[in-house]
Amino acid sequence: xxxxxxxxxxxxxxxxxxxxxxxxxxxxxxxxxxxxxxxxxxxxxxxxxxxxxxxxxxxxxxxxxxxxxxxxxxxxxxxxxxxxxxxxxxxxxxxxxxxxxxxxxxxxxxxxxxxxxxxxxxxxxxxxxxxxxxxxxxxxxxxxxxxxxxxxxxxxxxxxxxxxxxxxxxxxxxxxxxxxxxxxxxxxxxxxxxxxxxxxxxxx
Length: 204
Hints:
By secondary structure, the protein is an all-alpha fold. The protein has eight helices and no strands.
């Protein structure tokens, strides 16, 4: 079972991953976006850490809902609302339970990913964060590491795609040949979850 500390550790691992990869995220964003994805995500997750440390939530759901609200209020562009929606809906789906199972985590993340799809109007193959999140959530039924691997493969697979949603879609065919930065940061989020689960041990 996973408690609030597990989810705080996940957010800390995600923040560390974003910090480590911020320059790469911005580099990926330069040709097809506003060249600010890395700095935006770094600012957002730095704020998430501060919020969680100031008043640590007592339940898994509350951790993710606070993280989501913080990202919405601190991250610029489309990333804040989308990542905020992902974490808020996931947290809301977990409810007020003090501990949740890995199956609960997978089901809740699926709800969060569906909310992202509805908010952004995107689906698989549109060259967005969903190209990492959708295969990641599906693979989560097997294991956290499988989810991370599937998400990374999904992010890489955005390279030959023509963007149909988001800022990159304005470029048309010029968006082809560039890995999507949103899918890349989404893969980092699931990799951080896998790392956290492996460090914590337990169910899978």
